[in-house]
Amino acid sequence: MGAPLFWSLSERWGTRSRTVALVEAPTLHGNAGSPQLGLGLDAIEGTVGWTLRGDQAAAAWGAPLPLQGDSPPDFYLPDDRTLRIARQLCGEAHTYANRGATVTVAPTRWVVAHRFDLSKRRPERGIMWPAPHPVVAALDLARSGARGRAILEDFDPPPGFHRVW
Description:
alpha+beta
């Protein structure tokens, strides 16, 4: 099933810190009021900042999986400092049911330094959060067990990217 290097990496792919549920999600138009959040929305491609993760990242690239339109976003953040600031400014939710977003530090800084502006690549979808490289989205899917692996069988990255799974 796929490339051995990808599957070996997927076994170790994860996050450095725990996932934190936030009461409020930042918005695409500024937000949650502070440049301290380091969203990196001014020049998505070429700057470090927040990026989608998990199912939402894969769906943004066209992976065949159903998402509810009102699902709170899941993000990778650049570092522990950004995570602390997000917890302070957006509030930490006590339960996942009441969350506005979930955040975690990216497994490697490369993830948040190589983001894509899908609003330019897929304008029919409208303004979207920055997305990680399709391989990162695929690694996240691979970590979600048999369901994710089944989705990966039918997920081809968009033109300009190579399928490595």
